[in-house]
Amino acid sequence: MTGWQQVLPLGAGASLPRWVADARLAQLAWSRLAEPEDLEARRFVGHRGPSAALERLASPAPVSAAECFEGESVERLRRGLARWASRWDQTDPERDLDRLHALGGRVVLPGDAEWPDGLALLDGDEPFALWVRGPLDLAAACERSIAVVGARAATAYGERIASQLGIGLGDAGATTISGAALGIDGAAHRGALASGGPTVAVLACGVDRAYPPSHAALLRALCEEGLVVSELPPGSSPMKRRFLQRNRLIAAAAGATVVVEAGWRSGALSTANRAQMIGKPIGAVPGPITSPSSEGCHRLLRREAVCITDASEALQLLKITRADPERPVPARPHDGLSDLAGRVLDAVPLLDPRSAQSIVGAAGLPLEEVRAGLEDLVMHGLVVPEGGGWRRAPLEEPPTGRGQ
Amino acid sequence: MTGWQQVLPLGAGASLPRWVADARLAQLAWSRLAEPEDLEARRFVGHRGPSAALERLASPAPVSAAECFEGESVERLRRGLARWASRWDQTDPERDLDRLHALGGRVVLPGDAEWPDGLALLDGDEPFALWVRGPLDLAAACERSIAVVGARAATAYGERIASQLGIGLGDAGATTISGAALGIDGAAHRGALASGGPTVAVLACGVDRAYPPSHAALLRALCEEGLVVSELPPGSSPMKRRFLQRNRLIAAAAGATVVVEAGWRSGALSTANRAQMIGKPIGAVPGPITSPSSEGCHRLLRREAVCITDASEALQLLKITRADPERPVPARPHDGLSDLAGRVLDAVPLLDPRSAQSIVGAAGLPLEEVRAGLEDLVMHGLVVPEGGGWRRAPLEEPPTGRGQ
Question: What is the nearest CA distance from B76 to chain A, expressed in angstroms?
Fold first, then answer.
């Protein structure tokens, strides 16, 4: 991405491509222009509609306070326009569509019959579009579905369980949703495919990419018998932050999320965390407490996750209705965090809850500011209340094995 | 035990042994005369005091309605007297005390300084006396204690975890309470002893017995460095039902109960169940879901048990205060169950809750009677409500490996 100067790719008066005026194509253009984590872009397009938003992007007029909607500021809008303009040259939704159609794919946009109901829970963080390959109906497949996720660095135990869950869900006619990654994800998809059950892979790259390369055959099978889905247009590369954003789609599309194996700071925990934040039930498969690959699962079990030992127990999760879904939080929890909140965060313990009063000492801040900081952190999903005190929510980081 | 005819061991006018008049010795006599599971005996002695109760037992007068206290009936009292009289000949608390003192032991009675506070939670099901060996103060040892229990048929994994918990608790200065059985219990005690930490074994036989025989050296070490406790007088044999009763003492004496490994129907679950019923926190150590030896733990984790992976997490259980301890239930859940309740019980599923309405069909009883039966079953701790329906509480059965 370019820096922060305002880039004006089109000269004033240059004519805009005709797809700008087509709302569906314009929407697809935005899925190229903005990163999945770019909440500013979603807000910008949401307020103006995709075509008008593109026209504004192409206009050389300086940003004025008058044009800002609620939640926007001149400064942030100026930065946003510069960011999106930097991808203008690469953007051609007609070419992207052609590429997808050549692969037998299709796009699904918000409001389309195939758009999964659960994505509405993302509330402002919904994807611009889904690029889809495979014979199943996406909305129908998500209707009775379990996300089976876990670490890439899985053990033989974990992979065995994941594939048994996929088989069991398939046998019950339920859909296995996962991320097609190495380890748990792949095993879950394979189990589902083996049982002839529906399965959906949500990728962190274009649906034309075979990533990870060793899963090329699996992805091909998923395109033929299941579904492969991405919010990124064809050709997009898998990038670290895209995996975290992808996780929110898995969490929202599935009826419940089950973590099979996850290290202490595994990225799979972020999927569970997302699911929980939007009010979806979560489960975790236990393992030997001597296995670092199960530490994240045990951590979840010490919180709200239900202990899952087979597919029928996973399906029971679908019957749980959360009385109090936590409010959806922005896509990037650390984004927009004040210095104050950051300082308070450093003083919040990872596991054992600590009272606001005792955070005062650790943070070196007055109680009033600690309270304000905590409120901010809770809003960002970084801190959770527990037993009258406060502790950190699981970190959203990509799998790195055992951290601490 | 003899049948049900009224046995009159002392002829009318024969003089009673002098210990009958000594309240402490009379109390000890009752711990010989009545089985731990004999609630009727506790009620009988509770209403009259131990000496007067013995005098009534020795009297040949037929039972009259006039002498019955609340909760007693002529019929039940007649049976009770016959039952207790059948052990009269074996009863000599002075001899029992001599035997205990010869081993360096002592007795602790309700109200004594060493009587563990937690036993009061048993509410009508407290033991008559505790026969104790070992250098520790029993009440002090129970103050900050965790029951570490589990299957006799433990795996190497389970034994390793149990001994690590014992070590960790000992390092933290907390007491490991267990039952000195093969498998998990022994490993927990050994860990505690290895760390020099306090540990208490509660036996289902006399404290002079080395049971299981292969734990003779362990029991010796416990007598020298920890505590060995039983509600049964010296010489008493370990019997199946005594193990279940022993479990209630472990659950009540400890601050919290952690199950390390337990099969689907392991007796260790009864300890957790007891702890839960009297409002004590319970924890369970997860294991591979492929291991039958962890099935009971996972079953607990799907209920109220907290996931425990180390000693510090076990100690955190002590901070949990249950807002709503379930009401204590009688010692023997099936005791006094009506035919109606028994019929309803057969129709209540083991795991997946079923509505009262759907139990109607299965039980072949009108809804009103099903409701009455369910109420009875809940009172007996045999059935628990879940998600608007009903299912069975874990069965209280001695360890038999994997059932189902």
Answer: 45
Residues belonging to chain A with any Cβ–Cβ distance to chain B shorter than 8 Å: 157, 160-161, 285-290, 294-295, 297-298, 301-302, 306-307, 309-310, 313, 316, 319, 352, 387
Alpha-carbon A332 to chain mean position: 10
Cα torsion A35, A37, A38, A41: sign:
positive
The C-alpha of B280 sits at a distance from chain A's nearest C-alpha, in angstroms, of: 17
At residue A275 the predicted structure's pLDDT band, cuts being 50, 70 and 90, is very high
Strand-pair partners of A384? A391
C-alpha A36 chain-centroid distance: 8
Query: A319: which chain B residues are within 8 Å (Cβ-Cβ)?
Result: 387
Distance CA B397, CA B404 (A): 12
- Strand B306-307 to strand B282-284: parallel, antiparallel, or no bridges (unpaired)? parallel
> In one letter, which amino acid is A108?
V
| Spatial distance between the Cα atoms of A348 and B225, rounded to a whole number of angstroms | 41
**Which residues fall within 8 angstroms of residue B110, CB to CB, at 6 or more apart?**
B119, B126, B129
What tens digit of pLDDT does each residue of B323-370 get? 444 433 333 445 456 777 877 887 787 777 888 888 877 776 778 778
> In B, which residues are within 8 Å of A294 by CB distance?
286
Q: Could you tell me which residues come within 8 angstroms of residue B186 by beta carbon, excluding any fewer than 6 positions away?
A: B159, B178, B180, B215, B218
- Contact state of A288 with B287 under an 8 Å Cβ cutoff: yes
One-character DSSP codes across B101-126: HHTT-EEE-TTSTTS-GGGGGGTT--
Q: Distance between CA B285 and CA B161 in Å, rounded? A: 8
Q: Pick from A131, A151, A125: which is nearest to A268 by CA?
A: A151
Amino acid A321: pLDDT: 64
Please, are residues B158 and B188 in contact by the beta-carbon 8 Å criterion? Answer: no
CB B129 within 8 A of CB B46: no
Q: What residue ranges in A225-274 does DSSP mark as E strands? A: 227-230, 256-259
Best CA proximity match to B258, nearest among B208, B216, B296: B296
Each residue of B268-326: pLDDT tens digit? 899 999 999 999 999 999 999 999 999 999 999 998 899 999 999 999 999 886 544 44
Asked if the Cβ–Cβ distance from B286 to A286 is below 8 Å, we say yes
Instruction: Report chain B residues whose CB lies below 8 A from the CB of A352.
Output: 316
Measure the CA–CA gap between B179 and B149, rounded to whole angstroms: 7
Which residues are CB-neighbours of B155 under 8 A, at least 6 positions away? B261, B287, B291, B293
Q: Which DSSP letter does residue B129 get?
A: -
Residues of B with CB under 8 A from a CB of A: 157, 160-161, 285-290, 294-295, 297-298, 301-302, 306-307, 309-310, 313, 316, 319, 352, 387
User: Cα A10–A12–A17 angle (5° rounding)?
Assistant: 50
Chain A residues whose CB is inside 8 A of the B289 CB are 161, 285-287, 309-310
- What is the number of alpha carbons within 13 Å of residue A271 lying toward its C-beta? 38
Of A288, A306, A319, which has the smallest distance from its Cβ to B288's Cβ?
A288
Q: Domains in chain B, ordered, with CATH?
A: 18-91 (no CATH), 97-319 (3.40.50.450), 339-392 (1.10.10.10)
Distance (Å) of CA A19 to CA A9, A22, A27, A95: 17, 5, 10, 11
| Mutation for testing the A interface, residue in B261, B298, B308 having most A CBs under 10 Å | B298
Q: Is there a contact between A319 and B157 if contact means CB atoms under 8 Å apart?
A: no
Give the CA-trace dihedral at A317, A320, A321, A322, to 10 degrees: -80
Could you give the CA distance from residue A90 to residue A297 in angstroms, rounded to a whole number?
Answer: 41
